[in-house]
Amino acid sequence: MKTISRLLLIVSLFATFGFSGIISGVSIVINDEPITLYEIYKYSTKYKISKSKAIDLLVREKLENAQIKKLGITVDAFELDQYIEKIATKNGMSIYEFLNMLKSKGIDIDQYKKDLKQKMKRDKLYSSIYREKLKGVEESELKDFYDKNPNEFKIANSFDVVVYSAKNPEDLEAIKKNPMLKLENIKTEAKTLTSNELNNQLKSLLNMTKNGTFSRVVTLRGKPTMFYVKSRGDIQTIPFDAAKNGIYRMLSQQKEQKAIKDYFEKLKSSASIKVVRQPS
Predict the structure, then answer these.
(1) What is the predicted pLDDT for the residue at 10?
(2) DSSP string of 112-146?
(3) In percent, how much of the chain has pLDDT > 70?
(4) b/e for 177-201, b at 16 or more Cβ within 10 A?
(5) Does the structure show a pLDDT above 80 at 14?
(6) How far is Cα 264 from Cα 68, in angstroms, rounded to an integer?
(7) What is the mean pLDDT of residues 87-101?
(8) Under the phi-then-psi rule, with left for phi > 0, alpha for psi from -120 to 50, and beta for the rest, what region is 228?
(9) Are 81 and 99 in contact (CB under 8 A)?
(10) Which residue, 66, 235, 222, 27, is CA-closest to 151?
């Protein structure tokens, strides 16, 4: 009996420490910064992506963090509070209401602030990259895009929709995945909405949503809401002069994204990357 008990103990200890060693082991070292197998597993699970894509994300993150440190980029408490206030205002809440809403969803506020602070540092890094690398967008580029994409500049002023509202945005996301799902706490209402009764954000949202599809979930009057667009009417074409500022922002954003991507590809190509152990 003692022999069996001892054997079970040894097997248990081996399983525990053996598994821990594998999970926490180093997989890749980039510029002397380790990426563990556990980090790869965590990102793959969290973002529902393959392990190879998780590695790409972690390598990019290590490169970003190194540049943030090198350039001395910081975010103070005042900046963080201002940023949270903007998010809260956008959702029609005070900071107090917004943070309480996060708590009610089981979100750790300290971790939320830590993650948000890191995002703000990353945004500052990106801004410094494309300020240095970005070239302006010429008027000819704007006109060329306008002429080649006529459907992008047709807008509707009337929308036949079904409005879905619920207490939890997760329920609306579930309906989006399975429209036949019946949930008691979801209210629906068929409506015809005209541009006169919509603000610019909702007009844009409904115009971006294709017929026969759901919009993204937004907050209206404090409630998670989404729209199923059945059809659109009263179609008009936006003239070039009215559209060019929007085209400029879009093309500038594309150039910014390319500048950032090229910047980190260059950093990655010159980085010291050692593969210690491939994730299984």
Answers:
(1) 35
(2) HHHHHHHHHHHHHHHHHHHHHHPPPPPHHHHHHHH
(3) 90
(4) eeeeeeeeebeeeeeebebeebeee
(5) no
(6) 13
(7) 92
(8) beta
(9) no
(10) 235
Return the percentage of the chain with pLDDT > 90, whole number: 47
Question: Exposure pattern of 117-155 as b/e (b: 16+ CB <10 Å)?
Answer: beebbbebbbeebbeeeeeebeeeebeebbeeeeeebeb
What was the pLDDT predicted at 63?
A: 95
Residues 6+ apart with CB under 8 A from 214: 164, 175, 176, 179, 226, 227, 228, 229
Query: What is the C-alpha separation between 230 and 28, in angstroms, rounded?
Result: 50
CB–CB of 230/210 below 8 Å? no
Is the confidence at residue 105, as pLDDT, over 60? yes
Distance between CA atoms of 167 and 173, rounded to whole angstroms? Answer: 12
Per-residue pLDDT tens over the stretch 41-50: 999 998 899 9
Residue 20 has pLDDT above 50, yes or no: no
Both tokens assigned to 80: 């963080």
CA distances from 147 to 143, 210, 244, 278 (A): 6, 22, 11, 49
Cβ 227 vs Cβ 164: under 8 Å: yes
Q: State how far the alpha carbon of 53 is from the alpha carbons of 26, 43, 65, 274, in Å.
A: 17, 9, 18, 17
Pairing of strands 223-233, 236-237: unpaired
Cβ 88 vs Cβ 100: under 8 Å: no
Q: Nearest 5°: CA angle at 23, between 18 and 26?
A: 110
Q: How far apart are CA 254 and CA 186, in angstroms?
A: 38
Higher pLDDT, 15 or 248: 248
End-to-end CA, the chain = 37
Helices H / strands E in the chain, number of each: 10, 10
1: pLDDT strictly greater than 60: no
